[in-house]
Design brief:
The complex is a heterodimer. Chain A is α/β, with parallel strands linked by helices. Chain A has two domains: 167 residues, P-loop containing nucleotide triphosphate hydrolases (Rossmann fold, 3-Layer(aba) Sandwich); 69 residues, no CATH class. Chain A contains nine helices and ten strands. In chain A, strand 4 and strand 5 form a beta hairpin. In chain A, helix 3 packs across helix 4. The longest helix of chain A has 18 residues. By secondary structure, chain B is mainly alpha-helical. Chain B is 87% helix and 0% strand. Chain B contains nine helices and no strands. In chain B, helix 4 crosses helix 7. Classes of the chains: A alpha/beta, B mainly alpha. Chains A and B meet through helix 2, strand 6 and helix 3 of A and helix 1 and helix 5 of B. Chain B: This is ABC transporter permease.
Chain lengths: 256, 269
């Protein structure tokens, strides 16, 4: 497996400073600082329940931070109006852990839904070709008339990514893209994430606890420990340590 | 390690869980905010006309068979049960007007709404609850679509529009049931039956019935949507949302019926 190299520092597309988030008495994020650079794949690692998904949900405005500064494409997510937030969301794609496909719609309708709502000037022909192009990009054009319930877990993930990509976002947020998939499908998803980065020039945050995925897709890795990013850098930088909170993570994924 | 535990304790002390009374007020505030958002977003463009038509069709079509059967049987049974009391005073000729007034003023709106609360309310609660649990509502949010407008306003409007139509349909089917009973027992003609029953129905009866049905329809849609849209995570939450939509919906319909009877009674005296 070829490891990806970090990109030289460029324009920041996401900048998070001193982010705090709690749910009742459970303090999930405790002073998170993070940057995502243009055309970079940043992998966020961490144990379950450490707030990885909460972090990207704050980035896209699904959750509001208790304290801290979150800037996405130079806009403060928690300070803009709902209309501005909707406009910003057009530039930020979110791929859900369980795909979140609309189960009452076919694959075609799932892709058409965000398109016709946000690009009202498109003709029927343009919509059809956009849908077919995107399904072709994820290798699932033949499923166009199927219902989500007829698809496998890996296919659902791919369709979820295609539905997100159809709006041509600048930033992609992947929530556990390989969770619950077999190793072969995991490799296919990893390749797809890299293809998306190259073909659509996206900057991405990939949430995972799969180190194979992290190594394959990440230009940079950040590890969430006790509510903050204590280790950031290349894969080696993060795991070349005797920190007892980090070592078991590596051992489980590679020694087991 | 001790230091870490200590800092956790300090953090825990900062947030206090609200008490039962506070939670009730928080829920009430949420409900009013939800209703307020409906009025704010329901009448502002862009309009979801296609989805509204689909929901109107779904709500009407889903309840039609059950409403037809219930309305027809109610008409027959009500007529049959009322006859002996009227016969004691030699007033069986009043049956058509009695049935007409009873159906239009109370039976049709109440029956239709209770059936719709069971069928439509639970269906809306379960559908939106399931969409919430499987993150489909979040998926709409992040794809720059306003899910409240697409899912909630369309369903509430559809139920507010459809329930009054279904109410008059129930009244009509109920009258047919009553006609069948009256024709078989007294040999009254359809023309005489409808003439007698329609003569006793006033403009106030029609207006009151329409207003009541609109309020009931709004309640059914709003309760179903609120329970589904705010359902907690997990499959248990979906069941709970569907169940609460029916129970709370029916409870509110009865309260609204009592209040509206008192209110419209003021105009009849």
């Amino acid at each position: 497996m070829k490891e990806k190299k970090p990109l030289s520092e460029q324009e920041k597309v996401i900048e998070i400073n001193g982010l705090y988030k709690s749910f009742g008495n459970y303090h999930v994020l405790r002073g998170v600082d993070l940057e995502l650079y243009k055309r970079e794949n940043l992998v966020v690692l961490g144990k379950s329940g450490t707030g990885k998904s909460v972090l990207i949900k704050i980035v896209v405005g699904l959750l509001t931070p208790d304290h801290g500064d979150v800037r996405v494409l130079n806009q403060h997510v928690d300070q803009i109006t709902y209309k501005e937030l909707l406009a910003l969301r057009l530039k930020v794609g979110f791929s859900f852990q369980n795909s979140a496909l609309y189960d009452s719609m076919t694959v075609r309708e799932n892709l058409v839904f965000p398109l016709i709502r946000n690009q009202k000037k498109l003709t029927k022909g343009e919509i059809t070709s956009a849908v077919e192009e995107m399904l072709d990009a994820v290798g699932l054009l033949h499923t166009i008339n199927q219902m989500p319930s007829e698809l496998s877990g890996g296919q659902r993930k791919r369709i979820g990514i295609a539905r997100t990509l159809i709006l041509r976002p600048e930033i992609m947020l992947y929530d556990e893209p390989t969770a619950g998939l077999d190793p072969i499908t995991c490799l296919e998803i990893n390749s797809l994430i890299n293809e998306v980065q190259e073909r659509f020039h996206t900057s991405s945050i990939i949430i995972t606890h799969d180190l194979t995925c992290a190594k394959a897709v990440g230009n940079r890795v950040a590890m969430l420990l006790d509510g903050k990013f204590e280790r950031q850098g290349t894969f080696e930088d993060v795991f070349n340590t005797n920190d007892e909170r980090v070592k078991p993570f590596y051992d489980y994924n590679f020694i087991q | 390690m001790e230091k870490k535990a200590e800092s956790q304790e300090t953090l825990n002390d900062e947030v206090k869980t609200p008490g039962k009374l506070s939670r009730t007020f928080i829920t009430l505030y949420d409900v009013f905010q939800f209703i307020g958002r409906f009025f704010k977003e329901g009448f502002l463009p862009p309009y979801e006309g296609k989805e509204l038509m689909k929901q109107c069709y779904d709500i009407g079509y889903r309840s039609l068979a059950l409403i037809s059967l219930t309305g027809f049987i109610t008409g027959i049974v009500f007529t049959k049960q009322s006859r002996p009391s009227l016969a004691e005073f030699g007033a069986t000729s009043w049956l058509p007007s009695l049935v007409g007034i009873a159906l239009l003023r109370t039976l049709a709106p109440l029956l239709t709404s209770l059936i719709a609360a069971g069928k439509v309310g639970s269906s809306i609660g379960a559908e939106l609850g399931s969409m919430r649990v499987t993150e489909q509502i979040d998926a709409m949010e992040v794809s720059a679509t306003n899910p409240f407008k697409f899912l909630v306003t369309t369903r509430v409007l559809a139920s507010t529009i459809t329930i009054p139509i279904l109410t008059f349909y129930t009244a009509m089917v109920g009258m047919l049931g009553a006609l069948l009973n009256v024709s078989l027992s007294e040999g009254t003609s359809a023309k005489a039956f409808f003439q007698s029953s329609l003569e006793s129905i006033t403009f106030l009866d029609i207006t009151a019935s329409t207003i009541k049905a609109v309020i009931f329809g709004f309640t059914i849609g709003m309760v179903g949507c609120y329970q589904g849209y705010n359902s907690s995570k997990g499959t248990e939450g979906v069941g709970k949302a569907a169940n609460s939509a029916v129970v709370i919906g029916m409870f509110l319909i009865f309260i609204e019926e009592v209040v509206s009877v008192q209110f419209f009674g003021l105009f009849r005296t």
